[in-house]
């Protein structure tokens, strides 16, 4: 018959980690799936208290035989209760939209094991999850079978503080989101203003270019007028010289 592993029987010098390994967690979940009565008092009808304790002892010995944490039977019960509590709290926050996350496949298995049916699951999500470990452990190993209820949920100060911190963090994140939105809007407005300035500068450059073309055209026209005047002057001078010479010749003929 398997023996109960107490906390005093677990050496502090084993060198093993305090957190269960992934292999141990999977083994605990598989064992719970095979023995769902360990998660629900309502499913324990027809099972003796000794049988219930024996299952937990068997699970503890199996988990301790694997690489990972070394815990007493009470320690493994507390691990399961805390794990279930944290997952139900996480699911509650997800359902209320307080966090944007989703359960992992292992967490979904634990939540499924912790909910005997859909109505039980909905009722639990409306409560503040808590472990209720002290009463659960004492009842389990003191023989008070009628009081054992691993699914009992009671709010704790730690849960309330945790929820308060989460709410404050969510509020701060909302404020940061608003500030980021305002900053993005200001950046967009600044970008539009810079775009308008660039457009105005482009139009000004086009106007200057057109003005330069006008001055160039005027300069060309002035040059053409100058050449025309010089050509007229040259023509007049030639005509005047020819006429003067003819007059002189005529004068010489009649003298």
TrEMBL record:
Q: Which parts of the sequence are annotated with region: Disordered?
A: 114-155
Taxonomically, which superkingdom?
Eukaryota
Instruction: List the protein's name.
Output: Regulatory protein zeste
Organism, as annotated = Brenthis ino
